[in-house]
Amino acid sequence: MDDQTFRKAMGKFATGVTVVTTQFGEEIHGMTANAFMSVSLNPKLVLISIDHKANMIDYINNTGKFAISILNEGQKDISAYFAGQNQESREIDFNWFNDMPTIKESLANLTCEVHDSVVAGDHTLYIGKVTDIKITDGEPLAFYEGKYRQMQNGAGVN
Question: At 42, which CATH number?
Fold first, then answer.
C-alpha cells in the first residue's frame, strides 16, 4: 500500500480536534492535533502523537508538560491557525489554567505532565499524566476525511 492509501483509510476515522500547548521560557507554543486519546482511568493518562518534524517535540521534551484543549464547533479558525493553515500573525488570548496556557471556550482543558514517551516511526507518542481538568458544555469540532465537520443534532458527522 502507498502513503496516500494509508492516509485515506485513516481519514475514515472521525476525530475531535485539539490544540496542544506548552510554555517554554517566556514563549507559548501550540499545535493542532487530532491524534489524541485517553489511555487509562487509574492513573488518569492521555496520549498525543507528534510528528518528528514539529517543533513541539523539543518544547515538550524541555518542559516535561503540556496542555490539551478540546475544541468546540466554533473554533475552526483556532484549529487552522495552530495547524499553520493561516499564516497571518495573530494574538491569542490564552486562558491560564493550572499555570498552563489553554484555549478559551474549548470543551475541555487538560493539563498534563509527561509520564512516558515512545518513538514510533516518524512520530513520538507522549503519554501524559493528567494533573487537572476543566469542562465546558458545547458541541465538538470534528475532523473527517481531511475536512472539518460539525455534529448535526448530536447525531453524527455531516
Answer: 2.30.110.10
% of residues, the chain, pLDDT over 90: 77
The CA distance from 39 to 68, in Å, is: 14
The structural domain count of the chain equals 1
Q: What share of the chain is helix, strand, coil (3-state, %, to 5)?
A: 15, 50, 35
**Residue 29 structural domain:** 3-8+16-150
Q: Is 56 left (phi over 0), alpha (psi -120 to 50) or beta?
A: alpha
Give mean pLDDT, residues 24-39. 94
Q: Is residue 29 part of a domain?
A: yes
> Taking a C-beta distance cutoff of 8 angstroms, is the pair 114, 126 a contact?
yes
Residue 72 pairs in a beta bridge with 140
